[in-house]
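Hi support team,

I've been running sequence recovery on a batch of backbones for a student project. Most finish fine, but this one hangs at about 90% for roughly twenty minutes before it completes. I'm not sure whether the input is malformed or the queue is just slow. I've pasted the structure tokens below so you can try to reproduce it. Let me know if you need the job ID as well.

Thanks,
M.K.
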């Protein structure tokens, strides 16, 4: 033994690459055992050396990878082994050594026994299906594998299933991440206590072997890495290396799965610094190791990293172990690298060097950075392994191995520290990577496991400066893509912003780093460190300022922009993810008073950063025109921290606000955005393309509004509450560019705005003021109130599904903020404000989802138009909300007309913001309101109802928020020179409302009507017509003492204000002056402005009262309500005023004004007393007359148009009712194709294309629009009632043996085995599978019109959902899908009636006639030689019918192409259509009447076409079954003599319904009713006999002999032929002559259940046996002769149908117990014919008794077809199928699907199962449904329909608890079957209406 071992170690060995000797495996084990023994000795040095030598040799890294690098030589050198053999050999050795001589598998099992499995830790990769339970999770990133989830108890929890994006790991058992209550059964027990200690020798070998193994792996990695050349990405080479290393890494991965014991050994190995030092230092004598070390150093260098030793010249001082070394070396090395770094990094910057340098210097001054960015020192295997993992761009296998180790606590800490240490390097690699998406996912896969754990995050933050590292790395990352900001001052701006066009931002490459940062900020302990660290805050604000002002938009004024950049997506995403989300994370920790300090810090540094920004962009007071950026993250940080400070921390707002000047600067940019929104909506930015609209929408969109528009508005509210209100208001109107419009004059000039934009900009400005003054989101609303307001606003716009509500209501964007969208408050608020509308189904309509709709009281009290306007992305939503509000008021009878938006009371303001209300009480606003009211009253242009609405809203707001006392405190405060003192005395709205203004001085263009000479004023007064006031303004040229000043006051005031602010710095003043003045001087082209003075003599109150008159259109319409009812003043809340239009609003305001002050009340009464004189009629100038006429003409035109439209709509409606209603057939009027008036001799058809009516003729035939489709629905009937279930486990399978199609197939092939082929093809029907179903919409057209219609469709280039080349089209009238035209047979109606008169011929005569008629050679009505158009069409439609189905469904004959085949196919088409109609009627005819199908049935026409073709194939009269049925044939024995040729099918084996169709289609059409009845009577005798035979076979021997006996006794009674007992006994005695009954001894008997047959049960059996035939026959009679079907009870169906068919003699009605035999009418003596038929059977059963018996028992009772029954809960389907493997390639398909008709599992789009370019779903749809497939897509829960060459998504039959689909399982909530939807699906399948009902079809190109 020892000798062997010695040899193994020392002796010369053959090179390992060669094929080892056969005995070697044994030797390996022996060697291992020996070494283990040697190592177990106390003195094991010798053993250790021996082992080292062995490992050195086995694991030498030189050979294999050299081989990998150049494969050919390796193959040559390695002999047979090839490159892989050596590695395999090495792995074998390792396994043997680890097991220490035992078996490796036993070793694994032994180690597993010591696993203290407290954690699951299962690691998964992308696309894995996992679960997340919010109820159990502590961290929002918590996830569970499916197994742990189902093992735990999560009933009633808020959980969802999700598809992992980046991969993850199961947290079950980890109490840091989730609550213990959610652990699954396996991980609940803290099992560590009872796990025994690991025996020392078990893992001893591992401790020796693994370090070498891992070192070997690292050497491979070093060897294989070649720095990629400059441009060429070397992923290929890297992947090659990784493929070679696959087995090694998998081996390590398997070790981790052995459980805790092995993991702790691995941890020791990976983190042991000594081992690492010994093995990798590269100082040994081993050349290979040295070379490897050099490669490692090169790799470090090329990564831009330094190995600290190179730098520290003063010798290596080993500082204390642990992560702090980083910092120490950092300080030392930073000094050396600073200078050299900048220059080296500079080359990345293309063309923006100067800028980059400047920025970078600022950053690099922080000494930490260098160490963070550029120094790496590896001290353990783990560190170097991670280094290579990053270098190789995170190979999946390595990631999984590293993560699998995480359950080991010690490893977790070590690995996290290592990860942090490499953080900067990760960022650099990520930036360079070509596969940044995959890499991002892998990084996050790791980091989310590390940073979600608060304890760990805190530890790393303290020990490794995690926060510093993250912030610095982010900063560096963004530095690489900075550009100069062009905001404000393009030339001198010093500000830099990120360039949104760079890949880094466009591809979201920064995502993993930001996501980690957000993740660690969610931990309170970490966030607090961040908020306390001033240095970090400064750096972070620096980072945020990179985004301040990015993606600047400049308004295009001349040309349309050439290239619409889409960079705005990147900009919005970046601000949301990199700025807003960390902000929300920080805010979530500033909730209590104790955290005030943090807020102060943030606010302080934020303001500093803002000040720097204003300086950098050279901002003074005016924003640059025509520029806007939507990105102001610094403003928003400031705003949100202010809001939190006031709301949660009780901070005094003024203590954190800056001075006035800063506030004025702060408000400018957010205000600019609000003005730009109005400009964009006014189409002023239209030349910038659609993208600018996109930005405006994104800014207010639900995911962004919380972090964008809301903080902006809040910041403006804060500024407004602290700044001078006059200044603020004038700034608003100036920013919105409508100052010039605010003049009393009827004409004005706007220097900055085109006339067409004025109105919408004015609306924008007023709406903004209303929002600013009424929004309380951050001014005092509680969270629940906010949630409620948001929800009401969304529901008022539209009814919403639950998920869209969740999506639309802006939650705090940081998912970790604790406001969870599905939280209880959400559900409770929802149930308080909305009602649930369950999904309804219109049969032909779209699938609806469960919706929530606002409750009535919400409309009544809570509908808030302001909130709606704020939250609408599309303007049409505001309209939609108003329409719904109007509808509610009409319906509830509260207000009939068109209401105005209601005024809603607001939540009280938080005391800190009381100043905001001063805006409502400032003279500037009052002047604006006064002017606008005046202008509206005077009908100046550019004012709309919306303007008035907003003006009134503002007045009402002012009245609601007025100061209690009416004194005017502020008048004295602001000095005497306020020019608007001449307007109003004080600043309180209540008192200003009553102030009369007599004269106003205005600046007007000289052309304006106001500027006229005095002399003219008296004479041509008509020129003043434009001011339709009751008093004409006198135009005075001289100053008037009581004249209010010109209102260009804004400019004046701004100048003054600038002076106040800029007193300190006179230079700035110089800048301002010219700007402001230039702004207001009009361009030279405009006419000169002059001053005019208008006489006004109005107050706001008098204007309001006149407006009331104007709106109501009546004089004196306003009467103060308190004069009648003094109560009104005491309880003013009167519901009468809450809803209504402008009149109501005015009344409400006047009432409030009167309430506020007695003076107002008196003045209102006074105004009303002065009855205004009637307005004198206006004289109208010619010009105005023209415009008025125009207006009138327009109005008339409009009315005409309305009338036409209404008429058209009603016509359309009536058409729709008659024609379109495919699915609600009961209601519509039958569109009979033929009319029943006897006087009309021929059927008349309307052509829907040319509109002419007329009969169908030989040369111009008319046709029915039909859709031909192959159908296998009939084949799916089964004989049991229970529908089959969809299999959801391996045990359940569905076998198609019992389907109708299978049974018929078996029968046909059985017949073909024993009988003559041509005869077999007449004995049965086909078409159960792939039968052709013909349906019509009932519209007809000329066939030549149709051809030209098809031609036009062919030339029409529009993409239709159908293919014209395949003959598809839509009916020109009702647009129903169709693909052929069925010619109508020219025929008259009168004839029809004659044919139906019953004659009194005997049945014998009729039988002869039938035989003669059938015998005539068939031909088209006109001889074939002169082919008519009709016969051509008949032929072509027959061709269409044949081509509709596949060849395999047509050709059943043994001799291909035999005419019998066509014959069989044609009568089977008739059979298919009749059977399907029967199914549509529910499987029986009890309901009677003309049915759904009847109205649109085309069976009549179809029969003509089929009959014409059938008669071309005459049946040889010898073989005509008719003779066998109606004549006794003599020479029976001779027939059977010809043994060699196959006999014909015995008549008793024939399918009677098939015989019926053959007989009828062989007759010349139209058919005589007598002949029809005769055929039916004859066939009924055969059918009845078949029933008796089947009955006799079914029962047992004793019954048979008993019946034989009883029947024989009655044989000689009078109507023996009509007694079933007699007939049965005769049949039994006849058949007993053969061998049919002889098989009693065999098992056959066991299958027949011994039933006690009573006469009743036998009668029932016979009736049931005959019913299917009677039903089909009655249907046929109904279609051929147009007779109605009687309705009846199910019990009497047999008797009713048989009398309706004329089988029952009329006198027979009396007898009570009905006997089926009484319907028999034998054409020849019964016993003779029966014995003749039995003889055929006997002669067959002589040889084949078994088969003879099988053929006699026909299953006639088929149940209706059904789709498979689906389980209640979707999860059962999903869990079974989404992991099921494909039967072809045994992989799990990407898109699995399952057929709902037969349960087959298929791969959608799977290439593995493709056959001749057909993918599996398409193939299956052809095989299973003859071209129709219904598939459930497992991963999407959706149903997809394939119909021929088209497909469509049908929708889902699984809905969640809120009645919604979850397509693609995005939400992952539990789904439950919706039975109604499934019924609708089944109905469409059975009725073949997929094509008509589903609209969105597309071609699938066989690729599904």
């Amino acid at each position: 033994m020892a000798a062997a071992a010695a040899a193994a170690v020392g002796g010369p060995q053959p090179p390992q690459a060669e094929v080892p000797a056969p005995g070697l495996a044994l030797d390996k084990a022996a060697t291992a055992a020996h070494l283990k023994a040697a190592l177990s000795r106390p003195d094991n040095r010798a053993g250790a050396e021996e082992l080292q030598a062995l490992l050195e040799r086995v694991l030498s890294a030189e050979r294999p990878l050299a081989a990998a690098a150049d494969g050919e030589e390796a193959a040559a050198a390695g002999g047979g082994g090839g490159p892989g053999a050596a590695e395999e050999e090495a792995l074998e050795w390792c396994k043997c050594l680890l097991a220490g001589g035992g078996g490796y598998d036993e070793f694994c099992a032994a180690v597993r026994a010591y696993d203290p499995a407290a954690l699951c830790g299962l690691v998964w990769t992308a696309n894995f299906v996992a679960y997340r339970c919010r109820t159990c999770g502590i961290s929002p990133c918590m996830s569970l594998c499916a197994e742990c989830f189902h093992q735990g108890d999560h009933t009633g929890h808020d959980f969802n299933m999700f598809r992992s994006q980046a991969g993850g790991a199961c947290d079950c058992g980890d109490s840091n991440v989730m609550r213990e209550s959610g652990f699954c059964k396996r991980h609940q027990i803290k099992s560590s206590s009872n796990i025994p200690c690991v025996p020392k020798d078990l893992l001893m070998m591992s401790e020796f072997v693994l370090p070498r193994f891992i070192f070997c792996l690292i050497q491979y990695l070093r060897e294989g890495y070649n720095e990629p050349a400059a441009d060429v990405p070397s992923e290929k080479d890297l992947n090659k290396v990784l493929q070679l290393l696959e087995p090694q890494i998998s081996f390590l991965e398997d070790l981790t799965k052995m459980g805790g014991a092995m993991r702790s050994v691995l941890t020791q190995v990976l983190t042991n610094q000594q081992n690492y030092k010994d093995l990798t230092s590269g100082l040994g004598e081993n050349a290979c190791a040295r070379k490897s070390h050099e490669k490692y150093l090169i790799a470090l260098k090329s990564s831009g990293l330094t190995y600290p030793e190179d730098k520290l010249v003063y010798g290596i001082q080993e500082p204390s172990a642990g992560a702090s070394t980083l910092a120490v070396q950092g300080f030392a090395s930073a000094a050396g690298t600073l200078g050299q770094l900048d220059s080296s990094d500079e080359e990345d910057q293309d063309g923006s060097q100067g800028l980059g340098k400047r920025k970078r210097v600022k950053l690099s001054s922080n000494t930490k950075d260098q160490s963070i960015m550029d120094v790496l020192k590896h001290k353990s295997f783990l560190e170097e392994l991670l280094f290579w993992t990053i270098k190789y761009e995170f190979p999946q296998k390595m990631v999984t191995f590293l993560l699998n180790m995480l359950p080991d606590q010690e490893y977790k800490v070590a690995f996290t520290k290592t990860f942090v240490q490499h953080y900067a390097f990760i960022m650099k690699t990520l930036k360079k990577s070509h596969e940044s998406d995959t890499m991002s996912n892998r990084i996050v896969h790791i980091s989310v496991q590390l940073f979600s754990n608060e304890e760990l995050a805190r530890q790393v933050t303290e020990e490794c400066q995690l926060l510093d590292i993250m912030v610095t790395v982010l900063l560096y990352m963004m530095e690489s893509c900075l550009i100069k900001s062009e905001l404000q001052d393009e030339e001198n701006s010093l500000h830099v912003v990120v360039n949104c066009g760079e890949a880094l931002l466009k591809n979201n490459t920064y995502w993993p780093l930001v996501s980690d940062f957000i993740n660690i900020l969610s931990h309170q302990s970490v966030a607090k460190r961040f908020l306390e660290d001033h240095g970090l805050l400064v750096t972070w604000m620096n980072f945020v300022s990179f985004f301040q002002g990015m993606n600047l938009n400049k308004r295009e004024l001349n040309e349309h922009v050439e290239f619409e950049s889409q960079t705005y997506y990147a900009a919005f995403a970046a601000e949301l993810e990199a700025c807003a989300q960390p902000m929300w994370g920080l805010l979530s920790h500033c909730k209590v008073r104790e955290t005030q300090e943090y807020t102060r810090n943030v606010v302080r540094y934020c303001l500093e950063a803002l000040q720097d920004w204003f300086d950098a962009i050279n901002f003074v007071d005016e924003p640059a025109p025509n520029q806007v950026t939507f990105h102001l993250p610094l403003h928003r940080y400031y705003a949100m921290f202010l809001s939190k400070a006031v709301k949660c921390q009780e901070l005094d707002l003024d203590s954190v606000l800056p001075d006035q000047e800063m506030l004025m600067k702060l408000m400018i940019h957010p205000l600019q955005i609000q003005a730009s929104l109005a400009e964009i909506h006014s189409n002023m930015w239209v030349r910038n393309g659609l993208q600018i609209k996109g930005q405006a929408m994104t800014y207010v969109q639900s995911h962004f509004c919380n972090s964008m528009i809301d903080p902006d508005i809040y910041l403006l509210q804060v500024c407004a509450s602290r700044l001078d209100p006059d200044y603020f208001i004038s700034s608003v109107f100036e920013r919105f560019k409508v100052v010039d419009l605010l003049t009393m004059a009827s004409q004005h000039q706007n220097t900055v705005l085109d006339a067409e934009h004025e109105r919408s900009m004015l609306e924008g400005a007023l709406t903004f003021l209303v929002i600013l003054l009424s929004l309380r989101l951050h001014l005092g609303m509680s969270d629940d109130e906010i949630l409620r307001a948001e929800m009401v606003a969304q529901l008022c716009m539209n009814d919403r599904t639950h998920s869209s509500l969740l999506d639309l209501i802006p939650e705090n964007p940081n998912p970790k903020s604790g406001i969870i969208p599905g939280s209880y408050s959400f559900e409770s608020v929802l149930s308080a404000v909305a009602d649930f509308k369950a999904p309804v189904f219109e049969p032909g309509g779209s699938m609806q989802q469960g919706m929530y709709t606002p409750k009535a009281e919400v409309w009544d009290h809570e509908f808030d138009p302001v909130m709606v306007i704020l939250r609408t992305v599309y303007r049409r939503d505001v309209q939609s909300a108003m329409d719904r509000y109007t509808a509610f008021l009409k319906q509830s009878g509260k207000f009939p007309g068109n209401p105005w938006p209601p005024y809603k009371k607001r939540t009280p303001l938080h005391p800190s913001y009381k100043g905001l209300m001063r805006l409502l009480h400032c003279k500037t606003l009052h002047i604006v309101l006064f002017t606008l009211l005046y202008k509206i009253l005077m009908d100046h242009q550019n004012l709309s109802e919306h303007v008035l609405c907003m003006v009134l809203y503002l007045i009402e707001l002012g009245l609601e928020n007025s100061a209690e006392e009416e004194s005017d405190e502020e008048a004295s405060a602001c000095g005497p020179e306020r020019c608007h003192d001449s307007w109003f005395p004080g600043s309180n709205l209540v008192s200003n409302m009553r102030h009369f203004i007599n004269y106003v001085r205005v600046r007007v263009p000289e052309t304006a009507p106001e500027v006229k000479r005095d002399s003219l004023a008296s004479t041509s007064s008509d020129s003043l017509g434009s001011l339709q006031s009751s008093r004409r303004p006198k135009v005075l040229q001289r100053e008037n003492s009581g004249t209010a000043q010109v209102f260009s006051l804004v400019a004046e005031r701004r100048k003054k204000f600038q002076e106040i602010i800029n007193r300190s710095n006179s230079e700035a003043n110089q800048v301002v002056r010219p700007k402001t003045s230039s702004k207001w001087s009009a361009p030279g082209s405009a006419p000169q402005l002059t001053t005019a003075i208008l006489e006004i003599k109005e107050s706001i109150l008098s204007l309001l009262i006149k407006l009331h008159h104007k709106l109501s259109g009546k004089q004196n319409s306003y009467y103060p309500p308190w004069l009648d009812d003094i109560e009104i003043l005491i309880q003013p809340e009167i519901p009468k005023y809450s809803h209504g239009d402008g009149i109501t609003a005015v009344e409400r305001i006047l009432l409030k004004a009167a309430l506020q002050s007695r003076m107002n009340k008196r003045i209102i009464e006074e105004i009303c007393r002065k009855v205004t004189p009637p307005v004198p009629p206006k004289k109208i100038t010619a010009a105005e007359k023209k415009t008025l006429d125009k207006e009138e003409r327009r109005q008339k035109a409009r009315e005409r148009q309305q009338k036409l439209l209404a008429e058209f709509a009603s016509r359309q409606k009536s058409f729709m009712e008659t024609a379109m209603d495919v699915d609600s057939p009961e209601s519509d009027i039958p569109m009979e194709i033929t009319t029943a008036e006897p006087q009309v001799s021929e059927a008349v058809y309307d052509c829907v294309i040319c509109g002419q009516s007329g009969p169908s003729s030989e040369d111009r035939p008319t046709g029915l629009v039909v859709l031909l489709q192959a159908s296998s629905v009939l084949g799916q009937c089964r004989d049991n009632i229970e529908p089959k279930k969809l299999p959801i486990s391996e045990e359940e399978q569905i076998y198609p043996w019992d389907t109708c199609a299978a049974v018929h197939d078996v029968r046909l092939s059985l017949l073909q085995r024993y009988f003559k082929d041509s005869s077999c093809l007449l004995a049965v029907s086909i078409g159960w599978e792939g039968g052709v179903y013909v349906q019509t919409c009932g519209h007809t057209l000329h066939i030549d019109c149709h051809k030209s219609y098809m031609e036009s469709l062919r030339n029409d280039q529009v993409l239709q959902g159908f293919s014209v080349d395949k003959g598809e089209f839509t009916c020109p009238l009702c647009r129903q899908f169709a693909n052929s035209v069925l010619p109508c047979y020219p025929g008259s109606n009168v004839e029809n009636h004659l044919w139906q008169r019953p004659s009194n011929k005997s049945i014998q005569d009729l039988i002869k006639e039938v035989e003669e008629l059938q015998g005539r050679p068939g031909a088209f009505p006109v001889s074939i030689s002169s082919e008519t158009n009709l016969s051509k069409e008949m032929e072509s439609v027959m061709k269409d019918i044949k081509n509709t189905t596949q060849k395999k469904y047509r050709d059943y004959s043994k001799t291909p192409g035999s005419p019998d085949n066509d014959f069989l196919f044609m009568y089977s088409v008739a059979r298919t259509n009749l059977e399907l109609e029967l199914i549509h009627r529910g499987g029986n005819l009890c309901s009677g009447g003309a049915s759904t199908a009847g109205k649109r049935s085309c069976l009549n026409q179809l029969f003509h076409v089929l009959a014409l073709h059938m008669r071309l194939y005459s049946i040889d009269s010898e073989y005509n079954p008719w003779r066998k049925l109606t004549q006794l044939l003599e020479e029976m024995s001779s027939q059977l003599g010809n043994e060699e040729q196959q006999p014909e099918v015995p008549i008793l084996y024939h399918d009677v319904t098939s015989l019926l169709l053959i007989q009828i289609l062989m007759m010349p059409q139209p058919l005589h009713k007598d002949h029809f009845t005769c055929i039916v009577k004859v066939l009924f005798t055969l059918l009845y006999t078949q029933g008796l035979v089947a009955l006799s076979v079914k029962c047992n021997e004793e019954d048979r002999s008993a019946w034989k006996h009883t029947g024989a006794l009655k044989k000689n009674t009078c109507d023996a032929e009509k007694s079933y007992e007699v007939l049965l006994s005769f049949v039994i005695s006849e058949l007993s002559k053969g061998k049919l009954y002889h098989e009693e001894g065999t098992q056959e008997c066991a299958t027949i259940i011994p039933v006690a047959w009573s006469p009743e049960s036998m009668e029932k059996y016979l009736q049931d046996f005959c019913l299917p035939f009677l039903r089909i026959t009655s249907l046929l009679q109904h279609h051929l002769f147009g007779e109605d079907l009687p309705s009846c009870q199910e019990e009497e169906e047999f008797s009713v149908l048989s009398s309706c068919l004329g089988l029952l003699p009329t006198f027979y009605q009396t007898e009570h117990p009905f006997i089926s035999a009484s319907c028999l009418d034998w054409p020849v003596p019964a016993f003779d014919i029966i014995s003749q038929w039995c003889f055929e059977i006997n002669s067959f059963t002589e040889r084949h008794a078994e088969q003879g018996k099988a053929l006699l028992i026909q299953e006639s009772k088929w149940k209706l077809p059904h789709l498979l029954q689906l389980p209640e809960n979707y999860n059962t389907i999903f869990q079974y199928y989404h992991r099921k493997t494909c039967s072809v390639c045994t992989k799990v398909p990407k898109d699995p699907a399952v057929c709902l008709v037969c349960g087959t599992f298929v791969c959608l789009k799977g290439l593995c199962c493709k056959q001749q370019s057909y993918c599996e779903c398409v193939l299956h749809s052809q095989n299973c449904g003859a071209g129709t497939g219904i598939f459930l897509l497992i991963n999407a829960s959706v149903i997809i329909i394939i119909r021929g060459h088209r497909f469509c998504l049908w929708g889902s039959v699984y809905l969640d608890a809120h009645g919604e689909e979850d397509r693609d399982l995005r939400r992952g909530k539990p789904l439950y079957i919706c039975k109604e939807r499934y019924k609708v699906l089944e109905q469409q399948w059975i009725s073949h209406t997929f094509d008509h009902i589903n609209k969105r079809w597309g071609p699938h190109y066989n690729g599904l």
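--
Follow-up from support: It reproduced on our side and the slowdown came from queue contention, not your input. The chain has 78 helices and 29 strands. No action needed from you.
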